[in-house]
Amino acid sequence: MASVIPAAGTLPWRRRDGRLEVALVHRPKYDDWSWAKGKLDPGEQPCVAAARETLEETGLVVRLGVPLPSAEYPVLDATGGPATKQVHYWAARVTGGSGVLENEIDEVAWVDVRSANDRLDYARDREQLLALVRAERAGELRTWPLALVRHAKAVPRGKWERDDRIRPLDAVGRAQADTVAAVLGAYGVTRVVSSSSARCVSTVEPYAVGRGLRLRTRDTLSEEGFAESHDGALAQVDRLLRKGDPAALCSHGPVLPTLIEVLCGRVAHSPDRVDVGGRLRQAAAESMRKGEVLVCHLVGKGDDARVVDVERIDT
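== NUDIX domain-containing protein ==
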């Protein structure tokens, strides 16, 4: 049985003079035009690899948007044996970077979608382009992420005799927090809100500190505060929806299903996104795993905010 080589990449996009443009990369080794992509490092999340590889190949910092169709095709593995390369793709917006190219890439070309369709060397790469165009036509390409995070693994309640609100992460949880930081970075989160409980704060603190962001803590997002009243936690979600900034909210297993239900009521009615509500409801019913990140991709803000896609990322 052929082995699977996981990889990830992006379709950076922009609008220039009213036209949708995408960035292609040229690899001199193969003399081909394709999307920026590369293999996952051991233990790396696909979304993290997609942003990292795009930076390494194009010199551009990107913020991931909606997922696009993946691609699978036969290759040879390191031993020369048969393998299947599986590449996950995302739409992406450029947020920074120098644009300095690495050795594997000798040119990055921003072209309109018709030129991209003609220039791409592989038919499989046109599937992602078509999905990107469809999302743009549906008004679902210019998105912003709201990431709901369940706190990472903590010291068990039975082994903690002090106030539960200061119960810390264990070694596994601390490692999960580093992965959470990498995931939030891939989606360009700029606003971080957390339950005031130590296990939640410690889950998102590495990201906030690493990015120089203010970490806002709220008692209303704690288990204790939520048990007294749901209103404060619901108000936090409403506030984030009104701002429309790339955001992360970290809370607890008993709290998150209620917050997810709010987002279920914001799902966009689109033929291409028919299962979004179902995936949200499943996440609420199953209870998110410790350290899990639920990335909701939204368009609009305030009363007009609508969820167009959702991803579950287990750290």
